[in-house]
Amino acid sequence: MTKTRARLYRQLAPEGWERFGLSPTNKLVCLLILLAAFTAVIETEAGIRDAAPFVFDTLEAGFAILFTVEYLARIYAAGEDPRYGGIAGRLRYMLSWWALVDLLAILPFFLGFIAINNAFLLRLLRIVRLLRLSRLGRFSQAWSALAEAVKARMHELLLSLGLAGLLLLFSSACLYVVEAAHQPEAFGSVPRALWWSIATLTTVGYGDVTPITAWGKLFAGVTAIAGIGLIAMPTGILAAACSNAFQKKNAREEQ
Amino acid sequence: MTKTRARLYRQLAPEGWERFGLSPTNKLVCLLILLAAFTAVIETEAGIRDAAPFVFDTLEAGFAILFTVEYLARIYAAGEDPRYGGIAGRLRYMLSWWALVDLLAILPFFLGFIAINNAFLLRLLRIVRLLRLSRLGRFSQAWSALAEAVKARMHELLLSLGLAGLLLLFSSACLYVVEAAHQPEAFGSVPRALWWSIATLTTVGYGDVTPITAWGKLFAGVTAIAGIGLIAMPTGILAAACSNAFQKKNAREEQ
Amino acid sequence: MTKTRARLYRQLAPEGWERFGLSPTNKLVCLLILLAAFTAVIETEAGIRDAAPFVFDTLEAGFAILFTVEYLARIYAAGEDPRYGGIAGRLRYMLSWWALVDLLAILPFFLGFIAINNAFLLRLLRIVRLLRLSRLGRFSQAWSALAEAVKARMHELLLSLGLAGLLLLFSSACLYVVEAAHQPEAFGSVPRALWWSIATLTTVGYGDVTPITAWGKLFAGVTAIAGIGLIAMPTGILAAACSNAFQKKNAREEQ
Amino acid sequence: MTKTRARLYRQLAPEGWERFGLSPTNKLVCLLILLAAFTAVIETEAGIRDAAPFVFDTLEAGFAILFTVEYLARIYAAGEDPRYGGIAGRLRYMLSWWALVDLLAILPFFLGFIAINNAFLLRLLRIVRLLRLSRLGRFSQAWSALAEAVKARMHELLLSLGLAGLLLLFSSACLYVVEAAHQPEAFGSVPRALWWSIATLTTVGYGDVTPITAWGKLFAGVTAIAGIGLIAMPTGILAAACSNAFQKKNAREEQ
């Protein structure tokens, strides 16, 4: 019995797999997660779902059962981990962040009374579990390198986000002042002008709302050019941080 | 009395706070600035303001009184700083850049006769005060690193801005020459074509104005591809400058 | 006879040319490929083709004959390479990746019965042959430097692509939930919302589909700002990787 | 006489000014160039020109006369340079690249019979002269650093431009194949589809032309994501090259 639990733990817990990458079971789980997400996405298209509603309902039920079995197996196997031994340990495990995500992902099937839209978002939540598995598998080094780069320059990145926020606020305030009288629908208040401002500063530029007065176009032009700085600043910070993180990683590997 | 002033100075002047980050009072001021800005922004939406005009007027009066008290307290506490001692020193302080910003931010309330739009911009000006506080608080190192990076490569950044300006001018001149006859409204003069040119070179691309002749599309295509260079150049310069500034900072910290 | 083959091999096989860059014959082939691609592209414009259909048919026949002669010459010359000696070696050569591309590029002319659109894509395939020639000519060092940079950080790049995919999925799911009822045509299912989501996250922003509800605009704004991270992340990784690859290359050259 | 020439040379030829930056005369010339360009740009707006046509004609005549005087003075002063001594040397100088640009910039005024649009472009050409002056003045170091960075990685940059060209070609070919039947006006030929393709790959995204079929949207999505690589690649190369060029410059300065 204990041997089965040890085997299950080795297969299910990414920390328990001593070799490189993920265990075969976890690879299968990844595949199931992707399939379930794909099904959930495709199903939202009414034309596709209506062609074979039974197939989709069966698939959903199948995924829910498989993920439930997996959830129960994970709880059972968690006992291998000294932190989660015994009944109290299992309860602690069930309240851990990842176990709650696992639970949320199977709940909507069993609580059929939840509105369909919310259920859809919960089902999509399953895909977050991929993050946990990838963080512990083949991509673990890439994760740690990128996380180190972002963490090392967190203050600089937050600062450039703050400056971006100020820029957003001032450009939308300027446009509000000069355009409100001419386009009350689009620029009649600062929150409305913010929609235009975000589209411009991120260089998305939908074009559903554009200034029409000369002053508005002048401010918009300045905003668009400032938007380049908004993109260049975090990119430059990240590039420098990545460069540093990769060098450290290489230095560690050479030792 | 002097002790009170010393205490006030320690709490209000960011230079006077010897510990890391900001003093509790300045943290509160930051929060008040954010709240006041949020109120000012929300209030511009007629639907929201009309629902409870009294609330907004009271809030605005409250903020104005709080910031006035803060302004007077800062002037009083400034005497702690040897540069601003005595009446003459206080006057010098009141003419300093930041004190003027503080004054401008409370003025519109007391001068009720200013047109409402301008008053709105002045009220928004308060948010600039966040910059001063953040520059001296927790983000001071991030500020200095980014400022050092930008300053070290100022000439290169200005040069790429100048080249961008030339590119803007020539692309709008070309489009004016080939499109003016077909779209006089949008390309009838170089300043008009400049609107299209900025939207294209910054890759915003609203699409409210696009060339329709074959030559116009050809020039526009070349402009759009050149726009990538326009983004890549300052990003590359900033990345290199950040990399250098962060390395220097790390070297200093290791010593 | 063998001398002719050796000469042909030296001229045709990029590996056989001992000097820097490409052999004169291969330069001519590059020129022919570019001309043939240009003709194939221009020809799709009905107005141009109809002006002189005979010219285009003759050109296409000419290119097909030249590339056939080149194909046969390459097969003949391949015998110089010890791997492809004799009849069996020639067959092996004909089944190699690049030889198949060469064959696919001349096939459509001889199999006139293929539908015109597919034939067009096959004719365009010829241009892929430029890649092979450039990889062995003057650009060989640039190729290897860039390939090394991309390969060294493949996991980090794939990870940021994966995160981008998650972001795409969640932003389209959110927009689907809040906008489906108001714009069923554009946001009626997650795959439909994905079209908007890609345009926004890549900052393309066509503007053919934009959210109209307040919640939709809020989510869209967050998506657009996240899109900057989506661009900054791979750019930063590539910049750091290029920096490393170029330094290694410089170090090798100095030795 | 020779002393006047030496003085003129010192003031006019940027190489002749031994101190940092530009000579006072050349600073004035820069200002005049900017003013002349500004006048030429503003004048294209019919409403502005019609308000005071006489002012603009006088200004243009004034600029033309000043630049003619400057041109003649430069030819005279060129004799100071050993390369351009005597009559033959002056002729050689007049055929040098920059002297021809100077000539082209004053020609349109004296040849009044040229069509107005072309004359406008020639007048704008004057602004190119700013490049020469900036290259020798305060921005000379920034110019050389950026030029060194671009030159050192020219092959890599050209290669990424070539890959971008291939991407453009294939994405427009795919869209042509799948969309031609549905939108003959926008995707009826590869050159027409190229317009959409450039707007998408550079992330400009005007939105005047967008795919409407499911396959078209699929290819467009892939193109848009590939467009991020198209921006990231040259940015990464430039960042790495700038980083290297700045380090070399710093090392030189420290010696």
From TrEMBL, chains A, B, C, D:
Keywords: Ion channel, Ion transport, Membrane, Potassium, Potassium channel, Potassium transport, Transmembrane, Transmembrane helix, Transport
Main location: membrane
Subcellular location: Membrane
Pfam families per the UniProt record, alphabetical: Ion_trans
GO biological process: action potential
A GO CC term assigned to this protein in UniProt: voltage-gated potassium channel complex
Membrane topology summary: Multi-pass membrane protein
Residue ranges of every copy of the Ion transport domain listed in the record: 28-245
TM annotation in the entry: 20-42, 54-77, 97-125, 157-178, 218-242
GO molecular function: voltage-gated potassium channel activity
Plastid found in the keyword field: no
Top-rank taxon, per record: Bacteria
Designated name of the protein: Potassium channel protein
Source species of the chain: Zobellella denitrificans
